[in-house]
Amino acid sequence: MMPAHEPMRPAAVAGHYSSPDLESRVLAALVAAEKNPDQLRPEDLTAIDEFHVRGAAATQELAAALEPAPGLLVLDVGCGLGGASRYLSRLLDCHVIGVDQSSDYCHVARMLSERLGMSDRVAYLQADALELPFGDAAFDLVWIQHLSMNIEDKPKLYREIRRVLKPGGRLAFYEILAGPGGEVHFPVPWARDPSASFLASQEDLRRLLTEEGFQPLFWQDVTKDGLEWFRRRQQKSREGGASPFGLHLLLGEGFPAMAGNQLRNLEEGRITLVEAVFQVPPDN
Ligand SMILES: C[S@@+](CC[C@H](N)C(=O)[O-])C[C@H]1O[C@@H](n2cnc3c(N)ncnc32)[C@H](O)[C@@H]1O
User: Fold this and answer.
1) pLDDT at 3 over 60
2) Considering only CA atoms, which residue is closest to atom 13 of ligand 1?
3) CA quadruple 35, 38, 44, 49: dihedral positive or negative?
4) Residue 17 CB–ligand 1 contact under 6 Å
5) Which of 51, 179, 193, 266 is the most exposed, having the fewest neighbouring CB atoms within 10 Å of its CB?
6) Which ligand 1 atom minimizes the distance to the CA of 14?
7) Domain limits for position 15
């Protein structure tokens, strides 16, 4: 199942998410935040292992839109530190495989899952979303949160996802998309500059998915919810100071500027947020 060679990844994206000493920094930050790494609870991790706007609430909302059945085989593409894959595994009582181009993130995803006693139901592989190391029709559900903005070749991404989905299988995603307000202000949490950022508009993404043979089941613009969440979060961090346990562990000292730009981009309509579910036709 593992690729025989290091997958080709755009250097700007790989560099953005590279974090070689992440494991030791996460463990130290857990202790600094008065959490016990030897008795971890899933909720201890949501500030870092749900690396998307609205965190765990957005994951729960998208999972609810799925009307899921137990026992599915799920693939989480661009899984990050694995928070959503662990949530889905618990919710659906199923196995989830996460793939991410970052070996550092996969390493920490494995470490956290071991500490939560979940290694028998979640697994993580370093792999490129454009060359998934799985056979055809292997999965019931592909899950994606905040990935496509790092992927330039979107037709290849959705072709590859469709290839690994069974007939009748579903693609659930929560994505940052281009808005009508113009170019984004950089840096943002997914890219320090435009070389790692490739935003599609809502219209382009819908058209592309239809062209690739997916049928829409659910589409919800959640930009307003994201904007309100970001405003509350920024207000809270102004009042309470920075927590030792947060996304700065993944993104470094530049994180406050990235978060500030994320809010500005939302306010100025430069980005939008969409939750959606699509299906491969059952008779495919
Ligand atoms: C903003 S993070 C979201 C992580 C996770 N989905 C979550 O919501 O917590 C984007 C993730 O996509 C991964 N990624 C970007 N390009 C990728 C690619 N071509 N193949 C696989 N993973 C990729 C990054 O390494 C990063 O972990």
Assistant:
1) no
2) 78
3) positive
4) yes
5) 193
6) 25
7) 11-279
CA of 14 to the centre of ligand 1 (A): 10
For residue 80, the CA-to-ligand 1 centroid distance in Å is: 5
Decide: 128 in ligand 1 pocket, CB within 6 A.
Answer: yes
Residue 69 lies in a domain: yes
CATH label of the domain that carries residue 241: 3.40.50.150
**52 within ligand 1 shell (Cβ under 6 A):** yes
* 34: CB partners within 8 A, 6+ apart: none
Please count the structural domains in the chain.
1
| 284 lies in some domain | no
- Which whole number is the average pLDDT over 31-59? 96
Look at residue 63 and tell me if it is in a domain: yes
C-alpha 205 to ligand 1 mean position (Å)? 18
Tell me the CA–centroid distance for residue 79 and ligand 1, in Å.
6
Q: Which residue has the higher pLDDT, 70 or 15?
A: 15
| 241-261 confidence digits (pLDDT tens) | 778 889 999 999 899 999 999
Classify residue 5: in a domain, yes or no: no
The full DSSP string for 17-60 is T--TTHHHHHHHHHHHTT--GGG--GGGSHHHHS-STTHHHHHH
